Amino acid sequence: MIVVHHLNNSRSQRILWLLEELGRDYDIKRYQRDPATMLAPPALREVHPLGKSPVITDGDLTLAESGAIIEYLVERYGEGRLAPRPGTPERLRYTHWMHYAEGSAMPPLLLQLVFGRLDKGKMPFFVRPVARAIKNRVKASFIEPRINQNLDYMEGELARHPWFAGAEFTAADIQMSFPVEAAAARGGLNQSRPKLMAFLERIHARPAYRRAIERGGDYALMG
Ligand SMILES: N[C@@H](CCC(=O)N[C@@H](CS)C(=O)NCC(=O)O)C(=O)O
To answer: What is the pLDDT of residues 150-188, one digit of tens each?
Structure first.
């Protein structure tokens, strides 16, 4: 049986969604973030040394990293679904987005989250204005331009075809859902980028997406 080690409000929601799309049976083992630090509990390190979510176990296999998990599940259980045929331009785009999601789109969104909290923690009162000034400067000069560059790129690609890999919905759209949702939550994505907003509407309307939310529980994006 496939077990998804699922942290609340996290990337592992994508794995539940994929398994629902594939119609596979699976179990969920739940972990809760520390409410103060938002970090995963130490119990996740007993499953995998990185202690992050998602991780799946499937028989003797333990696998971490969303992109690797998605590729494994599609290859092992997809029966040709949710991935374009190898050797096609669509397949190359599928591979591109599968890596781009975590390799390029997520890092500035994570920095946005970290710097957003820079002036919120405990600190002497006279340090707070300095922390706020550093935060605003890094956000304006480094983080936000990179988020916008990524959003412009994604918007442009979705203007060429409805899904990230081409005309058909694939597992690359599941992998890309997290950065697009994170950008809507904290990266300034709004109706000024209508293709990305339409993408969000279409994925949220998918029955498998909704079933995954029902099984997974709360899903408000953090990082
Ligand atoms: N690139 C990894 C990122 C994994 C990751 O950072 N997961 C977050 C949840 S969205 C996590 O476990 N955070 C808790 C922590 O770092 O303790 C993937 O896509 O699987």
So the answer is: 999 999 999 999 999 999 999 999 999 999 999 999 999
55 vs 66: CA distance, rounded Å: 8
**Atom 2 of ligand 1, residue of closest alpha carbon:** 65
Question: Strands 26-31 and 2-7: what pairing?
Answer: parallel
Of the candidates 184, 154, 203, the one whose C-alpha atom is nearest the C-alpha of residue 18 is 203
Task: Find the 112 Cα to ligand 1 centroid distance in Å.
Answer: 15
The CA 75 to ligand 1 mean position distance, Å, reads 23
* Location of structure tokens 């599928």: 94
Please work out whether the CB of residue 40 comes within 6 Å of at least one atom of ligand 1.
yes
Q: 45-75, pLDDT tens digit by residue?
A: 999 999 999 999 999 999 999 999 999 999 9
122 alpha carbon to ligand 1 midpoint, in Å? 24
Name which of 176, 27, 35 is nearest 104 in CA terms. Answer: 176
**Integer Cα distance of 17 and 84 in angstroms:** 19
Q: Residue 54: CB within 6 Å of ligand 1?
A: yes
Three-state secondary structure call for residue 196: helix
